[in-house]
Amino acid sequence: MLETSARLLKLLSLLQQPKEWSGAALAGELGVGVRTVRRDVDKLRNLGYPVDAVPGVAGYRLGSGAALPPLLLDDEEAVAVAIGLRAAASGTVAGTEESSVRALTKLEQVLPSRLRHRIELLQQIAVTPAGGPSVQPDVLLAVAAACRDHQRLRFDYRNHDGTATTRTTEPHRLVHTGRRWYLVAWDLDRTDWRTFRLDRLEPRIPTGPRFTPREEVPDLATTNRGVAHGGYRYRARILVHAPAEQVADRFGPSVATVTPIDGVHTKPFGMDDRGGGDRDPGAVATTLVETGANSLDEIAFYLGRLDHPFEIQSPPELIERVRDLATRLAASIPPS
Asked: Which positions ≥6 away from 98 have C-beta within 8 Å?
């Protein structure tokens, strides 16, 4: 006969199957009497598992409750869940990336080695499309674990210009922008907050000693500012002649930071009369856009999608590039 704890686990595993069990059928599977089954069902209920009684057949089924109790997964289910979580962590489903990493970190912590091997094998032969630079799952999990356990993290880091450095940090937060994964950490050598791209990061294992998390972790707006134009080869400042809320619709927080400029400014030459209200028709609000990229053409592409007039403030290379593109595009139009 199974011990009580092992019997409860087997009973829970049986009830998780999508079927209704009679008391006699459960007793037969467990090798106990029907009265023992009833007592074990009561123990599961006391642990928070919603075991419903099925009227008419004196049976049981696992229902839904107000909170999610722990689940038992067999080998095939554990592999399927881990593969699905890794795919979700890569950004294939918007809004689930960070929660997928947290769940995957918990699951990988308790997976037996035989299942780890099967998951790694599937990852090696499977192709998962992604919208940005790929991050190795082992790197993602190692950084997530360091954030969770509040352990110092040393890693080799490759800057945008290709130079390599070794950083010692207190990791606090992972951020996914839809394009890339970033680590927000306190850089111990520079005594300041820094944002690091995970696709340029190689952790040094083992991790360092535990630390006390800092209270002044940068908020989302500050983090997005570093993600949008920090660490890129080119950083651009553009004045857009339109209200900030309209400009923000064209740039996501991971692409650019959008700041309204106080006051109302004269409408530049060639601007049409959009908008309305009581505002002076010769004036319009102005918004500062700060963004970054490793390619001038990438910034020019985003600017070309704007529906509002704009003025490039910096860098000078971007001004020259846009001027060159404008000349080439104008020359491509046949004379009327």
From this structure: 174, 175, 176
Q: Of 81, 24, 22, which is closest to residue 57 (Cα–Cα)?
A: 22
Q: Quick check: helix, strand or coil at residue 1?
A: coil
**170, 186 in Cβ contact below 8 A?**
yes
The whole-angstrom separation of Cα 278 and Cα 238 is 27
Contact in structure between 240 and 222 (CB atoms under 8 Å): no
Count CA atoms within 13 Å of residue 69 on its CB side. Answer: 16
DSSP assignment letter at 61: E
If pLDDT is split at 50, 70 and 90, which confidence band does 279 have? very low
0.85 exceeded by pTM:
no
Pairing outcome for strands 59-62 and 192-197: unpaired
> Residue 268: CA atoms inside 13 Å, Cβ hemisphere, count?
10
Are 250 and 311 within 8 A, CB to CB?
A: no
Please classify residue 192 by burial: count the beta carbons closer than 10 Å to its beta carbon, then call 0-12 exposed, 13-18 middle and 19+ buried. Answer: exposed
Identify the pLDDT of residue 255.
64
Eight-state DSSP code of residue 172: E
Q: Which of 274, 318, 275 is nearest to 294 (CA)?
A: 318
What is the reported pLDDT for 212? 92
* 11-45 pLDDT per residue, tens: 888 888 777 888 899 999 999 999 999 999 999 88
